Amino acid sequence: MRKARTEAARKFYVALGQQISEARQRQHLTQEALASCVSLTRTSIVNIERGKQQVLLHTLVQIARALKLKPSDLIPETALDGEAVLQVISKVVTDTQGREWMKKVMSGQNRGGN
């Protein structure tokens, strides 16, 4: 089961990286320019876009802002209800109430900000 979760997380980060790359290109930003906006190296952006580097939540927020998007806009639609998102959420949010809130935010059910 651990290997399946690891594979699900890998697929999630690859899809997230694709979303970031496509959004960056739509904004006509280079990897170097995006890296500068979020205080990362270009190598980190390359690795994030390839799904080889996991993205911290605050970094995802910074990337989204730099791309003039909401963080949820970068989350791959195919992953919203998947095991990978639940795994990622469980690493970031440690309390049950927080996890439920994050699931709602990620699925677009919590538009009111509560």
What features would you describe in this structure?
It is built from 7 helices and no strands. It is mainly α and 114 residues long. It starts with a helix and ends in a 7-residue tail after the last helix. The C terminus is likely disordered.
Can you summarize this structure?
This protein has helices at residues 2-26, 31-37, 42-49, 57-66, 71-74, 83-92, 96-107. It is an all-alpha fold. The protein has a domain at 2-76: 434 Repressor (Amino-terminal Domain) (Orthogonal Bundle).
Provide the fold topology.
Elements lengths: L1 H25 L4 H7 L4 H8 L7 H10 L4 H4 L8 H10 L3 H12 L7
CATH architecture of the domain at 2-76, please? Orthogonal Bundle
| Strand residues, percent | under 5%
What is the helix/strand order?
A: HHHHHHH
CATH superfamily of the domain at 2-76: lambda repressor-like DNA-binding domains
Radius of gyration based on Cα positions: 14 Å
Distance between the termini: 33 Å
List keywords for this structure.
114 residues, 434 Repressor (Amino-terminal Domain), disordered C terminus
